[in-house]
Specification:
Helix content is 57%, strand content 15%. It is α+β, with helices and mostly antiparallel strands and 293 residues long. The strands form two sheets. Strands 1-2-4-3 form a four-stranded antiparallel sheet. A two-stranded parallel ribbon has the order 5-6.
Length: 293
């Protein structure tokens, strides 16, 4: 098999595939043998129709079957041999089939080439998470408003299932601390990813953006339905939702592709846990500085 790969605009490649000899000949023989076993021709029992009659009567069907079986097989082999990371189904054109040769072109969108260099030693400045007395007071005030209680005291705490006000305040402090830590981690994670993306310039595959956008749109519509928003209203707003979600879908694809490239460099398995493992690597390899105050 001969293959020639040409880069096209728009993140696509054209693969020219040519094969001749026994591969095509044997496939025709295999197809005609199967046709002969099943063909119903007046005057002949199935399996006893002369070969020349089979070829004359069923050549069109045989050609279709040979293409149906050989083209996907040869395309997959070419993609594997050329180490092409395809995204979508190929567009097959310029097919020429003869008894001992097959030529065709496959145009397909491929993963972009991403040259990630700096992803270790990223400088991160942060303050240690802390919960102040004012934070706890604000939280207690919001609880008071929602429960319409006059005084924030032990009785108030017991009404919420805590033995004392001190226990309630201690629980609130722990919850607020975890919340601040999570918020800070999200902020740092975003900063790390932004630092990696900053100097990268590559075309984001539109096919992947479209897929991610549909996933986000579907989940958003489910969330709205769970909130009791009527289906008719959700459907009416679909175009606006799609427009508003498109930038997020594009960023998510961009981030995923870059994380996948880092995973490849670090020999991290590209499975469902890959993004988490790569982000943990970025945290581990960052240059941390704790700010005072």
């Amino acid at each position: 098999m001969k293959t020639e790969v040409k880069k096209l605009e728009g993140g696509k490649v054209e693969i020219n595939i040519e094969v001749s000899g026994e591969i095509v000949k044997n496939k025709f023989d295999e197809v005609f043998k199967k046709i002969g076993q099943e063909a119903k021709v007046p005057g002949f029992r199935p399996g006893h129709v002369p070969q020349d009659m089979l070829e004359k009567k069923f050549l069109g069907h045989a050609n279709e079957q040979v293409l149906k079986e050989l083209v996907p097989e040869l395309y997959d082999q070419a993609v594997k041999n050329e180490s092409i990371s395809v995204i979508d189904m190929p567009n097959i054109t310029d097919v020429k089939l003869e008894r001992e040769s097959l030529v065709f072109k496959a145009t397909v969108e491929v993963m972009p080439e991403i040259n990630v260099k700096k992803y270790k030693g990223i400088k991160i400045e942060y303050k240690k998470s802390a919960v102040s007395a004012d934070d706890i007071k604000r939280y207690l005030d919001s609880l008071k408003e929602s429960h319409k209680v006059d005084a924030v005291d032990d009785n108030f705490a017991r009404s919420l299932g805590y033995p004392s006000l001190a226990e309630l305040e201690s629980t609130i402090e722990k919850q607020l601390f975890l919340q601040k830590q999570n918020e800070q981690r999200q902020k740092i994670e975003t900063g790390l990813i932004d630092s990696v993306l900053k100097d990268l310039d590559f075309k984001i595959p539109e096919t992947l953006v479209s897929r991610q956008l549909e996933d986000l749109l579907r989940q958003t519509k489910i969330d709205f339905a769970m909130k009791g928003i009527p289906r008719e209203k959700i459907e009416k707003e679909e175009d606006n939702l799609r427009k508003n979600l498109e930038p997020e879908a594009r960023r998510q694809v961009q981030v995923y592709l870059v994380l996948a490239e880092i995973a490849k460099k670090e020999n991290i398995a590209n499975d469902d846990h890959m993004p988490h493992h790569v982000i943990e690597l970025l945290f581990k390899e960052a240059d941390w500085k704790v700010l005072e105050g």
